[in-house]
Each structure stands twice: as C-alpha cells, then as structure tokens.
Amino acid sequence: METVLIAQDDPPGVGLAANQVGVNLSIFIIRPTQKSKIKVFINPKIIKTVSGSVLFRTVLKKDRPYKKKPIRLEGCLSIPRIWGPVKRANKVLLEYQDLTSPTYEVKLGWFQGFEATIIQHEMDHLNGIVFTQRTIEQKKQLYKEDEGELIKIELI
C-alpha cells in the first residue's frame, strides 16, 4: 500500500484504503504531505465528529474588494481527474490500532483539519462509498480535469 501511495504523484496521493488495492482488510494509510511520515490505521472506527461550518471569509483589499476563499475539492486515486467538494467534519475522534505497539493496543485519537478530511474519505472507502457519492448527495458540482482545466460534469 505504501508503494502505491508514494508512487502516485500527479496529483500526489494523501491516503489509500486496503480495498482500493484489492486487499479485504480494514486498514488505511495517510500521508497529508509528501514529506509526512505514513500513518497506518488498522480496524479504524470513527467515535465522534465535530462539525464546524467552513467559513468563507471576505477580505477587503484595495484592488480586490471582498474576495472569497476558494473551495477545497476532493479527488481520489480510484477515480482519476474527477474532483468535487465534500462537506466533512472538521475534527474526528478515531479508535484504531497501528503498527507502533507490539500488542496492537487500541488507541483513541483526535484528528483535525486536512487529516480529518483524509480519514473520513478513507473510512468511506472501507464502507464502499466514494467521494463522488458524497458530492452528489450534498447537491454539489463534480468536475472533470482536462488539460489542467476543470470542466463541470453535467448530471442527468
């Protein structure tokens, strides 16, 4: 799994669930940046989420009054060149095991921001859900990348 994740560089992969590579285990790995150490999550379970609305602040600048912050789009190694916004919880409390403890003790940890987004995306994979389903459920727009441009996908 690590080899597959590291090999993905256009765009860089940030997470991978075992079932994406044909392994029927409840495991996923994450690497939020290319310099991050890969974290392994075995038998993960989201215990609690904390949602906060993503605020789009308006900033007053001399040459650009009230510019909005861009929307973050999710993508997936399993669905190349397709992008869409997905509203996710800002924080997740995760129960899991990892490879650091020789007894595979169950750990509990809070993750927030981009790590929380990746964890929710990978948990969806383990549950048979892909991000495009979330985008459509939330009545958001999907995009296809074509030669560096994002083109709206028209849904029937």
Describe, in short, the structure shown:
The protein is of the alpha+beta class and 156 residues long. Helices cover 17% and strands 35% of the residues.
Description:
The chain is an alpha+beta fold and 156 residues long. It has a domain of 109 residues: Peptide Deformylase (Alpha-Beta Complex), CATH 3.90.45.10. Helix content is 17%, strand content 35%. A 5-stranded antiparallel sheet has the order 1-2-3-8-9. Strand 2 and strand 3 form a beta hairpin. It starts with a helix and ends with a strand.
SSE order, one letter for each helix or strand: HEEEEEEEEEHHEE
CATH topology of the domain at 44-152, anyone?
Answer: Peptide Deformylase
For the record, give the distance between the C-alpha atoms at the N and C termini, rounded to a whole number: 36 Å
Mean pLDDT: 89
**Spatial shape:** globular
If helices are DSSP runs of H or I spanning 4 or more residues, what is the number of helices?
3
Structural class: alpha+beta
In percent, how much strand structure appears in the residues? Answer: 25-35%
What topology, given as strand order, has the largest sheet? 1-2-3-8-9
Q: Please give the share of residues in helix.
A: 10-25%
- State Rg: 17 Å
Record keyword descriptors for this entry.
alpha+beta; 156 residues; 17% helix; Peptide Deformylase; five-stranded antiparallel beta sheet; four-stranded antiparallel beta sheet
